[in-house]
Structures are given as C-alpha cells and as structure tokens.
Amino acid sequence: MGRRHSNAILKTVLKSAFILTLTGAAVLGSQSNGIKANAKSDTSISSELNPAPASYGYFVDQYKQNIKTNDTPETNPAIALFNNTFLKYWDAPDGTKTNTAVLQENLDKSIQISNGASQAEIDRSYLTDRRDLRYNLISGLGQYAPAFIKDADAQTDFNAVPDAPLPADSPYSSMQWADENSTLGSAVKLVDIAEDSAWSGTGTPKAYIKFTRPYRQSSQVKVNPYLVNVMAAAKATDYDFPSGHTTAAFEIGETLAYLFPERYQQLITRSSEVGYDRVLAGRHSPLAVMGGRVIGTAMTAATLNDPDNKQLISQAYQDTQKDLANAEDKSAQDSFSDYQTNLKNYTYRLTYGFSPIGDTTKPMVVPKGAEVLLKTRLPYLNDTQRREVLFTTGLPSGYPMTDDTEGWGRLNLFKAANGFGEFLNDTTVNMDASKGGFNAVDTWKNNISGNGGLTKEGTGSLSLLGNNSYKGGTTVKGGTLVAENDSALGHGSFKLSDGKLTLSAKNVVVKGNYTQSKQGTLNVNANDKVSVSGTAKLGGKLVIKNVKGLKSGVVILKSNKLSGKFAHHALPKGWHLDYTKHSVKLVK
C-alpha cells in the first residue's frame, strides 16, 4: 500500500537481546512498572492491579521488537500477543483449524454482516477502504473536524463513491493526508508515528498466521460492489488476521483521543466503525478486526509511553488543545453525536456477539502502561487510579480474542472514559478547576459498586450519574459534587465538610448519616430533596432555586432524626424554612 511509509521509530534489535530480556521480564513486579501512587493513595499497588507478563515480557517495553526479521512468536511480541487467543483457534503457520466452531461462527458473522449492509454502509466502507485512514478518522472529531482539517492542512482525493466498480489495479489514496509543518503539525506528526506502527505491526503477524480472508473462504460473503475487481485481483498472500486497517484506526483514533479527549468516546467509536466497515466490505472477518483493536491499542499505549516521543506528545497535546478547544462549528455534520448509539455500537464491536468459549470468571488484568490511554481523559487521577478504572470497567473473560495474557483484549476504553466501575478502596479525587477541561468539570456515568468510598477535594465539579452502590460513604471537602441520580451517593454516610453538594435528581438518598458543616453548601431545586436513612446534622448554607409556582410545605430534607439548622439560606422573598424532628420544609 502506497501510504505504508517506513517506520522510523522501529529499530532492528538483535534477537538474542530480545530473548535475554524475556528471562528478566517474568520476575518483574510492581516496582518496575512505572506506576506511582500519590500521597493520598495506598503506598503500594494491590496485587490485583499488577501487570501480568506474557512470554515476551510487556508489550510496551518490547514493541520495537516487532520487525520483519523477528518472524516467530518466540521473537516477536506482535505475534506472541495472540498466543492465548487466535493462535488457540488456528494453528499457525501450519494452517490447521483447532477450534472449528469459533472459526465457523467467525465466517457466519462475516456472511451475515456483509449481506446486511445498507447502501449508506456500502458507501462508507468503500471510502474507509480507499482513503488514507488518518484522514478517515477525522470524522470522529465531529464539529471540531472543520478546524482540524483547516489547521492541519488535511485533504483527501476520495470524496464520493464511483459510478462503477473500480478497475483491478486502482490505487489507494496517494495524497498527503495532512502537513507536519502546519499549525497542527505536532499532532500530525504524532498521528503519523502511530499509523506507521500499524502497518509494521500487522505485516509480520499476518505473514506468520496466514489466515485467508472471508470472501475467499466463502462466496456467500458479499464483497463491496465498488471493490469487487480490486479484491478479486488481490494477491493470495493478502491475509485476514489481524486487520491492518483496524489496527491503524485504533492507533489513530486513540492518539487523537489522547490529544483531544473532549471527543474521546466519539473518536474510539469511529475507530471501531472502521473495523466494522472492513467486515461490511468482505475484506476482514470479525476476529480479524477484534485482533486489530487488541494490537492497535497495545501499539498506541507503547507509543505514548515511549520516552523518545515524550516531548512531541506534550507539544502535540498543547497545540491541539489551544487550536481546537474553542473551535466547535455547530453547523458541521457530526456522525457521532448520539451517546447511546456510540455506546451500543462500540460495546457490540468488542465481542461481535460471540458466545463465551472459556472461563468467564477470571479476574481482570490491566496491561503494563495501559493507564496512559486515560491520562488526558481523567487528568485529575493518578496512574494507580487510572489502572483501577481500567480494572473495574474491563470485559469479562472467556470471549474470543479477549484473553491475551496481558489483558489488552479485555480493555473497554469507552466504559473507562466514564470513570470508575467500582471503588476497590477509599478513593480521593482532587480536581483543580484552574487547569480547565476535565479538571474543572467532569461526569462519571458508570454504576459504581465496591467496598470503598469517595472523597471529593479541590475546586472542580464532579457529577455522579450512575445508580451507585459503593459502601464506603461520600465526603465533599472542596469544589462541587453533583448528584444526578437518586442513588448517586451510593451506600454509607455523607459528609459535606466544605464545598457544595448540588442535587440534580428528585430524591437523592443517603443510606447512612448526613452531616453538613458550616463551610458546606447544599444546592437544591425546590422540587428536589435529600432522604436520609440515619441522622442528619445540619449547618452551613442552603440555596434553593426554582420555587415559582411551588406549593407551601415541600420537604427539602428528611431523616430518621434531625439536629441543627442551616446557618445561612438563600430563599425567595416570603418563604422560610420549617424544622421538625425529622425534616426541613419550605413554607410560605
């Protein structure tokens, strides 16, 4: 492919050095993984968060060993990555099916998906095939895409579908997708580095695995009509697994998501859509694009952890934020504007509906270095906490392509972008609003469970949208905590030491005691209330909004036993508070 330019960051390393590294990798512990807890975290990383070394050690350390001359699982981590997944279903390089049921289901899904393509999907999968993928991923930026295209000098020569099938020798896009000397040149350069490793990343595994593309396995697979001649003329050695386009899509999409996390979930959804487009076109099977997600994510983490890229990553992030933060064009098309659609599509494409084939109860494993993928999306957390997020939002074990040793296949970055799925222990979050972005305002959408509790510090605002059941209670010491669900505060007592609690739900429940000090402020709408199962000790300030048309006697807070009063309150003229043994009412 013309755009597969040489990868400057991959270096030829002696195989003997690779093997020597492996002997030490297996004994590496938490001290060698580069993860440091801040002062408010446990002094050591719990064993469940420790990375698990594979046969090659850790991918983020060994990814540069993926070179053409390292052409076996014993010497190349990009091949060995699939030892416990695809290479358990297909005996390479002999080409023997070792799990016929999974491979047949894989082909059946290829037939079903390709035959069910709508005209819009046929058109989109054609453009996905022909365009430079780096340009293709720009659509994930939605209403920020026009500014990116302009300031990166981005361009493509494929803007529409053809009137007839392309000739067999029709070339891919030959245009330079963007300019490394543009205003966003640093971002373009980082994306180029990421995309480079995709083609180097999949070429050697493909040559070793030698798995036939689905349209050559069965004539029932429907080929994209615009590409029928091109695909018929493809070389017999043009193999299926893993999908290079999908690998590149995740590397590009996850890199852009790092640089512009304001579109994090939309960009990785577009990455997953590229993989789906490959199945729609008949080019690749679901297992191949799932494999692309796995290796693409591992390659992205390796690129973002590589010290050689540190300065460029920092500059690219700063330049992208400066350029795009206020560049939203609300008139521009956004194919990823609907959160629920993105969630549904991304989640489906993690497993493509395969049934489990193994133990579904294995503990989650978080790969070494994977926490970098959340560094800008959850900037107020430390590395240990980001690993906890990945640990508590991962996929169950047992599904095809999920159980590689390090855990890359079980990462669910879409869910991880929504915050913790569980508090493994007491968790302190300190948000500095002066830093802007997610440091100033963020929302956790997951349903949070666990034995730990939450302490909110700093000046930023954190919203809890989930139906939470964590047991350790909630404390606010600074900034704002917004309860957007009746069960947002989980189980356990609530303490408002300083800062604000804002209600954005009708009946926020505290399954324990409620304590508000003189520095705390409770913000409520007149129709909202706090229901406390234990005692309530009041102090501080109460602010009530939207009382127009409200009937007198509305309960603002009720508890099993009430003591104290709000020291200050902001009420409309003519209204006052009525305190009883169990409640606070708004009366007129």
From TrEMBL:
Keyword field contains rRNA-binding: no
InterPro entries xrefs: Autotrns_rpt, PAP2/HPO, PAP2/HPO_sf, Pectin_lyase_fold/virulence
Membrane-crossing residue ranges in chain numbering: none
Entry keywords, A to Z: Signal
Domain of life from the UniProt record: Bacteria
Signal sequence, renumbered to the chain: 1-25
Pfam family, one: PAP2
Protein name: Phospholipid phosphatase
Organism name: Lentilactobacillus kefiri
